[in-house]
Amino acid sequence: MKRKAKKNPASKAVVPISGGMDSSVLLHLAANRYNKIIAVSYDYGQKHCDKEINCASFQIESIDMPVDRLHIKLPFFKDICQASSLLNNNIAVAKAKDVMGDPQTVNYVPFRNLMLLSISLAIAENAGASTVFHGAAQADSVAGFWDGSQEFLDQINKVSALNRRNRITIQAPLLDKSKEEIIKLGLKLGVNFSQTWTCYEGEEQACGECTACSLRIKGFIDASYIDPLNYKISIPWEKYKCKVIN
Q1: pLDDT tens column, 214-238
Q2: Is the dihedral angle over the CA atoms 210, 214, 216, 217 positive or is it negative?
Q3: 208 torsion bin: left (phi>0), alpha (psi -120 to 50), beta (else)
Q4: Phi/psi-derived region of residue 41, left when phi > 0, alpha when psi is between -120 and 50, beta in every other case
Q5: CA-CA distance, 179 to 183, in Å (whole number)?
Q6: Which site among 97, 98, 105, 115 is 20 to 30 Å from 132 CA-CA?
């Protein structure tokens, strides 16, 4: 289902789109609010980059409005963030059951959101956009990502407000929403969740055990829907009385 944007010729927003569940919902939400979207995909060497980019492309093509697409490669991330499992092939992606209670797991990429949002702000200023969207959700802080918190959003907006000519605001409309709420919102907006990728592994099927997969699966169970994504592990959807998405 495609959604038409409001007819305001001056409204323009930058939306970082990873192709994940949250950023895909955010893209469709932004399409309802803005007349033009600049969609930005980042390749910083993450293991699941190819999966993300393919899903991001699908989501961008699914909205019925003008979209400028930027695909930015940041190879230096692998040189400076070797402590992250997403970038270092010698470090295994952490499974949820092994890192419960860990305030900052090896799946965290040091200062990633600060760097990517800074680039997004620069893109917005150059394009004359007044808004940059940030796909942080309620679960991010729980999963050990301080740069997905309300405190981080408040502080980076204070820095952005120092701009003497162009005031750009970073908005995170999913920040207070659970995965269940995000899924239900996405369904209302017509998001095809089979064309989203959440797993930190870059393999053919989602692992179902990393921190990202675990939060996604729980979200679908809480929403009482069967996740259309294929997983390596068996998930007893019937046990949780989940139904197929129509």
Answers
A1: 999 999 999 999 999 999 999 999 9
A2: positive
A3: left
A4: beta
A5: 6
A6: 105
pTM: predicted TM-score of the whole model, two decimal places: 0.93
82-109 mean pLDDT:
91
Q: Fill in the amino acid letter for 25.
A: V
